[in-house]
# Entry
Amino acid sequence: MSHDHDHTEPPSDIALRVKALESLLIEKGLVDPAALDEIIDNYEHRVGPRNGAHVVAKAWVDQDFKQRLLEDATGAVASLGYSGRQGEHLQVVENTPGLHNLVVCTLCSCYPWTVLGLPPAWYKSAPYRSRAVSEPRAVLEEFGTQLPQDVTIRVWDSTSEMRYLVLPIRPTGTEDWTEEQLQKLVTRNSMIGVELARVPGELESQPQGNN
Amino acid sequence: MSHDHDHTEPPSDIALRVKALESLLIEKGLVDPAALDEIIDNYEHRVGPRNGAHVVAKAWVDQDFKQRLLEDATGAVASLGYSGRQGEHLQVVENTPGLHNLVVCTLCSCYPWTVLGLPPAWYKSAPYRSRAVSEPRAVLEEFGTQLPQDVTIRVWDSTSEMRYLVLPIRPTGTEDWTEEQLQKLVTRNSMIGVELARVPGELESQPQGNN
Amino acid sequence: MQGGHDLGGKQGLGPIDPEPESEEPVFHSEWERRIFGITLAAGMLGQWNIDQSRFARERQHPADYLRNSYYENWYEGVCKLLLENGLISETELLNGTVSEPVVSELRVPSREDVEKILNSGGPTQMELESPPKFQPGDQVRVNRNYTNGHTRAPAYVQGCIGEIAMHHGGHVFPDANVKGQLQGEHLYAVRFSSKNLWGYGNDNSEVTIDLWEPYLAKA
Amino acid sequence: MQGGHDLGGKQGLGPIDPEPESEEPVFHSEWERRIFGITLAAGMLGQWNIDQSRFARERQHPADYLRNSYYENWYEGVCKLLLENGLISETELLNGTVSEPVVSELRVPSREDVEKILNSGGPTQMELESPPKFQPGDQVRVNRNYTNGHTRAPAYVQGCIGEIAMHHGGHVFPDANVKGQLQGEHLYAVRFSSKNLWGYGNDNSEVTIDLWEPYLAKA
# Structure
């Protein structure tokens, strides 16, 4: 009766059609294969959430930087060397004990590429896009994030070219940590807002991805 | 690139599944085959838009009946012998030179079965259900029905158990026609409101369905 | 719920492409004929009401609802109701043969019963003790109502201002009926200008839609 | 248009079911990698802008949009743009081989061009002569806007009252940009209570969304 809506295993049909399209465009001289590889390589290996973790950790240890980041995120982030496509107009939104921020794009998949790389599959999925605005608390719970009822959840729906990055709360017990150490606590998900930053004890048990 | 959204030729898969379901229910004693046949026979051969045409033609020739019909459609229609399921609460809405009525059910397929039988495929389709409320003039044009801009189009979205039947305008040139003759001008589509009643000249060229 | 069934005002669904009236058969294939009959016959077992039946069809992934043909959605709906009410099992549905006896004592309608049921129908009008809150001519706003349940307030009118056009009396309230609770509420035909619904007011059209009192607030 | 892409508040779409962050690859298969690169490379030919690119993906039957995986929709979008701009033909797409020469003179970006383009991006901020109509704190209502065109005012906020939270300055207006018309409009972050959006106000949540001045009216 029911059908499978999980598309992580696509039909080979689409693989063939994409291959044919690529051949066609190259043969027609519309796409330079080296340029194509450069684009893919850039987003698969160079741009990723480690950029954002750098930004966040620096904001945690450097009050002046944090101030600039909240006032002019695009400029502050560029000063660390991160700029370009899908990061032209950045806005950093700060979590506090009473306010939790969450980012979504209900109409497509807008996401701050320069600091987070390409969005994860769930961020681009219909379930997340539909429910993040209407039942954010339930969505957070699906990520294992339970917030007290008196914490306001503020959802940012990215309909324009503004790109939103969440500045998570610095975990307690990290007062004497260096910026480099702190970066390890800053997950991609914490900068989208579906999770909190990791706490020191989690570092061993949950290894972080490469990107 | 595009896919076919026309479902008039369904895959045989569903035919097999329905057959299996029917066998199962009969074997399990949940459905009496004779009762099943009675249901199908009733709506395929006995109840149909000729009932509605009878109601409309009578309203055209009999002012008292028309008055009762507009005030208490359920009672007036029952007096002609038409009552039962999906016609428990009827409302007749009258077209006038300045007002044209159109019926839709955006949430499912509510339709006055007792007077019109089962709805046509297009009435139950997503394109009609979505657009009848938002662009009724364009919808009417897809049926070849062009109304002057100064005619108000009033759409009835059947969200409750009230069932709406349109009383079309009696065509000119039928002043001396009998009720039986007039019935031939009353199409199913004119009682849904997507078309006008036929005019005398159309009778020869466009034969009417059996129902 | 705002599922695939809540279609008013949605776009991109293609042309209507109607068959000519004189050529359209009541059913387009044998299986449509049978699932229509099965759905009505199973409904006559009295194990669910019309709102539960509608909700069963609505509770599908929107892509399934929109991709399925009309009677495919009926098939999905009746299977769900039969399964959820324990009248058949998943295994039986898969194999098409009986593997478990029917648990409850059911009155299975005969041919004669069917005739009577079809002719009498099931009126939903109810006498209410409370007077109607609104009168024809009153301005009302439709409440926004995000719910995972069944409702007959389509998304396209929620938040909109309209005018009470008729009072239909008290009728069974779908949002409660779907939970098996028989509750009557005043029902109104409410008229909306196309300007209020869609933002344009130059096409001289309006929509009248039936809404229950709990959906409405004075505007 | 209210197509399959306009997902805010829609229901029945299933659980989110996220992959663990540490295990998720950037691409899940080789063809995703390639269609991502193709889409960006083709976009750098300068024949369409970002709103035209979004609109190409939106202009699908909602069942297709929802059934397709994310990158399948990218494939659909880029094919449509290449075809509509006359860069490839239906025959070529079907056969995967060139049968017609490229008509126009195009500057095809090299590896070095790509690096520059990716690093510089494409800012959308514009200097406007007219001052902003709204100030932070102002109450505004989002206009209802039924259109067959591209818009970035999602259905779920249309008709709702919110409060101006920020003025982002002038930005390219998508509804015009999709027609190839460069037009700047003031852009605001507008905040809505969940009560105003969904009818319940007890979950202590709110939504802030970027909306251009033509979408808004004083409330």
